[in-house]
Hints:
With 111 residues, the protein is mostly helical. 71% of the residues lie in helices and 0% in strands. The longest helix is centred in the middle third of the chain and has 29 residues, at 35-63. The radius of gyration is 37 Å and the shape is rod-shaped. The N and C termini lie far apart (109 Å).
Amino acid sequence: xxxxxxxxxxxxxxxxxxxxxxxxxxxxxxxxxxxxxxxxxxxxxxxxxxxxxxxxxxxxxxxxxxxxxxxxxxxxxxxxxxxxxxxxxxxxxxxxxxxxxxxxxxxxxxx
Length: 111
């Protein structure tokens, strides 16, 4: 018992149900919530529900294979529209055409 008294400053802690509770907000002493507060609570619940729905939709879009393919296509189209990418692709096509023409020319020459 002496340990318990020392741990709480010499007094035993009050039992949670025996001590008067501090009320927050505008709740009445009998525990009832005013009409205005219940409207605010309902509005907060609705906002939270809408926020959760938007979050779930966003997560579903992120993991959807169809959405991933669509995003990759959009990125590829954006990159292909850049002038430096178009110039690089044209240079690559010209290089490949040159290699193919050279190989055809060397085979005909041998044969």
